[in-house]
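Here is one chain, start to finish.
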Amino acid sequence: MIPAAFEYHRASSVSEALQLLQRLSDAKLLAGGHSLLPMMKLRLTSPAHLIDLGRIEAMRYIRQDGQTLAVGALTTHWEIESSQLAHSTAPALAEAASRIGDVQVRNVGTIGGSMAHADPAADYPAAMLALDGQIVAESPRGRRTIPSVEFFTGIFTTALAPDEVLVEIRVPATSGRTGQAYLKFPHPASGFAVVGVAAVITRDGGGRCTRARIGITGVGPAAYRPTAVEDQVTGSTLDEKAVAAAAAHAADGVDVNEDLFASAEYRAHLARVFTKRAVLAAAQRGG
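Its structure:
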């Protein structure tokens, strides 16, 4: 299908994009376009104005900032997937990037666009929750930092204000015997996560879990942390039986998604299975 008519604007800087957002009513920001343009073609959204951020090179980077990995919002999935710094600092984020769509999508799609779109089956949200990541947004009022646990508020909705631009993703570096993993059950047609689970597990010298953070995507209206699983895993020896018992709570209290491909019961089952696998994989990678 052909999208409804709109006016196209190309921003050369974040400040110019913010000015355009203030001046234009009914405007949408365009990054890689892999989420917004298909919705426009289906007439699910018909903005009067598109503000293209794609030429703002200052928003495309991966760098170390003290003990934090900083990623510009226009950094592509492929750039994160292939970054040695991302792999060494936040391997779960790099692994999530490598699982997105196909090569063509990963070459053009951006982390900022994906995060702002907040598809309930997107891959990054699970990794960001498990990594205790933060989202930096800029508006005419300045910059603010949003914890990932507060960022995803529902289906295709986030804590971003209408006049804000997502400019950076920040992930703290882990230390000690910490392992990370992101595993997913992809939809065979779209590649989106029917269920995706990220786990960050820290162990002491005796192999006992001292800290567990888990993020789950694809199961509910928004990505979430299964705190009951985290609480039960923490303090355990991370043997398969203990992890399986904890993972049984992966979908507790969640309004589980249901569609033609996966019933709520099946999706909840996958959540338990992949939570167990991700926790065991992260524990093994932690040494």
